[in-house]
User: Fold this.
Amino acid sequence: MPAAIINGDKQTAATIQTLSLKMDEGDILAQKIIDLNGSETTGSLLDTSAKEGAKLICDLLNTVSQTGKMMQGKPQSGEASYTSIITKEDAKINWSESAQKISAKIRAYNPEPCSWCIDENNQPLKILEADFVEQNQTVFAKAEPGKVIEYVKPQGIIIQTGDGILVAKKLQRQGKNAMLYKDFMNGARNFTGTILK
Assistant:
């Protein structure tokens, strides 16, 4: 799920397949394509996939109980796909990356391990929700990547990236509850102008 979000895939799927000794070689018994609109988190996509998978398996079991036999599966095509185990270090924000890529990683690593950076107090700061604006669509002059440029009440906390602006919506300091950007800024008067690392 995280890889599909980070890669900007337009679709993924919930699939019921037979077991096989090799990776991605079991026959496909049932499949439901799930369209992605670019707003999903791993948590929300797992919920959707679980619901779709449950429907698929129930329909499959009903068919088997009525016919008394398992249907013929469809062989998989293409190469097996692999992804690495995600660590906390994978989720550390690299402010030199584009705002679009950082935004995708924030969604991909939500709810675990959560994207994070180092704040103005040299402490971990999680960014749980964010949007992005491409550089040519913003009114803000380009600044150093990681710089907190502005706090705009209707939108969020404006942070410069290597290419574009990240608009942070929900944040969490170490040992504190997650907060929407307005509540966060009430207790972070000197946050604007700092450089996140």
